[in-house]
Amino acid sequence: MAANGDDPSREAWKEYARRQLQYRTDQGLSQERLADRLPYSESAVGHVERLMRKPTEEYTREIEKALGLDGQLMELLPAIHGNTMGPKWFREWPRVEALAHTIRTSEPMLIPGLLQTERYAREVLLGRPGATPEEAEQAVRLRVRRQAILGTPKPPMYSTLIDENVLHRPVGGAEVMREQLQKLLDVISPPYVTVRIIPLTAGLTVGCLGAFEVATMFDGGPDHAYLESAEEGRVTNRAATVQALIVRWEALSGMAYPVDRSRQTIREVMESYG
After folding, report:
1. Which residues pair with 228 in a beta bridge?
2. Which of the four, 70, 178, 183, 221, has the lowest number of CB atoms within 10 Å?
C-alpha cells in the first residue's frame, strides 16, 4: 500500500514517540523521573521514544495515567499495531485514518464505521458470514477505539455522504436505529464533522457502485483511498484511483442535501422509528 517507502504504522509510531516526549518535557520530567511513576524502567521509556520498542496497550495505559492524559496516546495504537480483526485488506486503513488531515466518505448501505453506535456496529458485525459472537465483540471494541480519532485535540476534518435509504434500513430494530440516528445528529459539528444525506429522489447515482473513503495525509504524503465491494475491499494510494474517487465524491456531494436539510431529514426518519 505505501509508496516511496512510507509506512503508516511507523509514521504512527513516530507520532506516538513525539507526543510522549512532548507531554513528558512539558511537565518537566526526565525519562528517569517519568519511569519513577511507572511499573517500567527508564530504558523502556527511552526505547519507545527512540523507536526501539513499540508501545503496548498496557504500557500506554500506565503512561497516560502518569502524565494525566486522556487517550492522546491510546488513539494511535490501532495505527501502530494494525487491526487484527476483519479482512486482511482492511487492516491498514485504521493506520491511515490516524494520520489523516481530511477524510471524505460515501456510504450507500450502512452508517459509516466511525459514526456507528456500539449496538449498531454489533448488529452489522454479527451479520458477517462465519463471524462468532466473540469475534464480533472484539471487532466492536476495535471499531469504537477507531472512533477516538474524531475526539482528539487535532482531529481530521471528516465529511460523509450517506444515502437516504441507509436511514430507513432498520438495522437491529427501531430502538437501535433511534439511538444511531441521534448519534448522527449529535456528532455533526461543521467544519470538523459534516454529515450530508443524498436524497432518494437522486435516483441511481455513482454512489451505488460501492462505499469508499479518501484520506488526505497530515504530512503531505500521498492521498489514500479505501474501496469496498460486495466481496472485498482494498486500500490504495495509486494516484489515478484516488483522483477518480475524489471526482466521484464531488459528484455525489453536488446531489446531497446541505447540512441543515440533512439534519432535518435524519430527525424526521428518527421520529418515524417511534
Report:
1. 233
2. 70
For residues 252-269, one letter each, b for 16 or more C-beta atoms within 10 angstroms of the residue's C-beta and e for the rest, the string is beebbbebeebbebbeeb
Q: Where does residue 68 rank: exposed (0-12), middle (13-18), buried (19+ CB within 10 A)?
A: exposed
Could you give all domains of the chain from N- to C-terminal order, each with its CATH number?
8-78 (1.10.260.40), 89-272 (3.30.870)
Q: What's the rounded Cα separation, in Å, for the pair 66 and 57? A: 14
**3-state class of 195 per DSSP?**
strand
- Omega before residue 199 within 30° of 0, cis: no
Instruction: Give the list of residues 6+ apart from residue 91 with CB closer than 8 angstroms, or none.
Output: 82, 83, 84
Cα(43)–Cα(66) distance, integer angstroms: 16
Closest CA to 271 of 198, 167, 171: 167
Tens of pLDDT, residues 40-59? 999 999 999 999 999 988 89
- Give which of 252, 180, 149 is closest to 210, Cα–Cα: 252
Instruction: Please name the helix (run of DSSP H) or strand (run of DSSP E) that holds residue 161, with its range, or none.
Output: strand 157-163
What the block records as the C-alpha cell of 30 is 526526565
Cell of 157: 476534518
- The separation between CA 86 and the C-alpha centre of its own chain, rounded to angstroms, equals 15
Residue type, 178: R
* DSSP 3-state of 234: strand
Note the pLDDT tens digit of each residue in 85-124: 445 545 678 778 888 999 999 999 999 999 999 999 999 9
Residue pair 196/162 in contact by the 8 Å Cβ criterion: yes
- The candidate with the shortest Cα–Cα distance to 159, out of 190, 205, 117, is 190
The one-letter code for the residue type at 232 is E
